């Protein structure tokens, strides 16, 4: 398919132009070009793009200098690069150590998966708030506090 903005050739099914990055939503499909011998994968979304593309055809982001990977055989689905998954044991830190464990887990996981790291940090603070609430309620019950002692009239 041809880009309506720059006229660059793109593969059928592309949502963004690999030459200028413009949206191809209004473009009319043409005969697909022969597959490129070398494919480059977008670092942001993992979509395979022809070698030399300046913008990703899947998400429209700038390609930068991603590592080239060999073309996949016809009919094969290319493997998407792993986003990185922090070890499951990091989830134990916020649960056991509250806000401090949340900060430690966040620091350890932020390089592999920032979204999961934020969730770990939030879990650490939530566990800390729950523990503070439990301690306050238990202290009030131990000291004999009762709301019936107050008159709101």
From TrEMBL:
Which InterPro entries does the entry mention? DZR
Q: Where are the transmembrane segments?
A: 88-109, 121-141
* Domain named DZANK-type: residues: 3-60
Q: Which keywords appear in this protein's UniProt record, sorted alphabetically?
A: Membrane, Transmembrane, Transmembrane helix
Q: What is this protein called?
A: Double zinc ribbon
What species is given as this protein's source? Dehalogenimonas alkenigignens
Q: List the taxonomic lineage.
A: Bacteria, Bacillati, Chloroflexota, Dehalococcoidia, Dehalococcoidales
